[in-house]
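Q: Give me the 3D complex with zinc ion.
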Amino acid sequence: MSEAATQVPASSAVKTFTAKAYAAQSPTSGVAPHTIHRREPRPQDVQIEILFCGICHSDLHQVLDEWHSDAPTIYPCVPGHEIVGRVTKVGNAVKKFKEGDIAAVGCMVDSCRHCEHCKAGEEQYCTEGMTLTYNSDDKILGGVTYGGYSQSIVVDENYVLRVPQNLKDNLAGVAPLLCAGITTYSPFRHWNVGKGSKVGIVGLGGLGHMGVKLAKAFGAHVVLFTTSPNKTADAKRLGADEVVISKNASEMEKQKNTFHFILDCVSAEHDVAAYLKLLKLDGSLVMVGAPAKPLSIPAFDLIMGRRRLGGSAIGGIRETQEMLDFCAERGIASDVEVIPIQQVNTAYERLLKGDVKYRFVIDMASLK
Ligand code: NAP
Ligand code: ZN
Ligand code: ZN
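A: Here is the predicted complex, encoded as structure tokens.
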């Protein structure tokens, strides 16, 4: 596909510069080269040269417009919300960052800052709606926000994360922490996963493999449920105490009524009720996976066992920093397959087949 026309920013009052990017132009286009505008940093802004950007399955849902009824895709769409890079410029009011620092940006670049959830540090549940890193209204430039499949990004310093020193030699492995890491860390913290918990992780993809590593680091007994028998050895290496092939009815039967907590990290339609049955009395099944189609849940699987079904979205900025610091202390990063940006469409095809080990990360040097 040829390079698409440069978008003209809606607000001409804000100075901008251009950046190379990869964008989807329609649900069937795949991603291809595109040029976008970024704002010149305001006093509170940090400008980042992007070094690595992870590929989340959410990028694929969004590019394909699979979440049309909840979050319709605005094209051109520049995905990417697992961003690590080098600070190249800071506004004169910025306190936390200076030129040359390594910094990170996740799924959220702003929120209202005054609602009860923002004040509590849970900006991802902002009652006015957080500004997502891509496919959100761009309140400063007008138009839509553009994500990390790009040379650079400009973000208010309050929504930028510090990368701890001992994670800096593996920045490709750090990038996925910004979504896959925090999205699994946050529910473990909220539901008090720790020593003595029997925890199930469903699906060994980007989120699932971070779920296994983090649940293990919290001290839980970890059981990985997979549709891919060939991932068994990896799951154990990543920290799973047991691996269950979810298509095997007798293996599933043996796990009935035994779990305190199960985190469902699956991107596609599947039998969620099969996992409810595995919960103990008062156990919780939490969805972080976001399949496009509504779930089908038999009431009796909730009623019997007083089970709970919940959900969780990424994490707030404070908790995301806490997660990065926790990963730095424990030497935890993502297992990645680094690719040039020209191979994103192939990576998407592999994601659809569950063929990922265990996060694709774009080396942004390939965009130059
Ligand atoms: P991913 O890397 O593609 O992993 C998904 C895994 O799900 C696959 O590797 C596969 O694991 C399993 N799977 C795929 N199709 C399946 C099917 N038909 N039946 C059963 N299992 C299947 O995806 P991801 O990036 O981890 O994202 C997972 C989901 O979380 C996506 O829906 C994404 O949008 C969502 N998400 C939510 C949040 C949030 O804040 N809640 C944040 C990020 C992502 P096995 O091969 O092991 O079965
Ligand atoms: Zn994500
Ligand atoms: Zn708010």
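A quick observation: The pocket of zinc ion (ligand 3) is lined by residues 111-112, 115, 117-118, 126-128 (CB under 6 Å).
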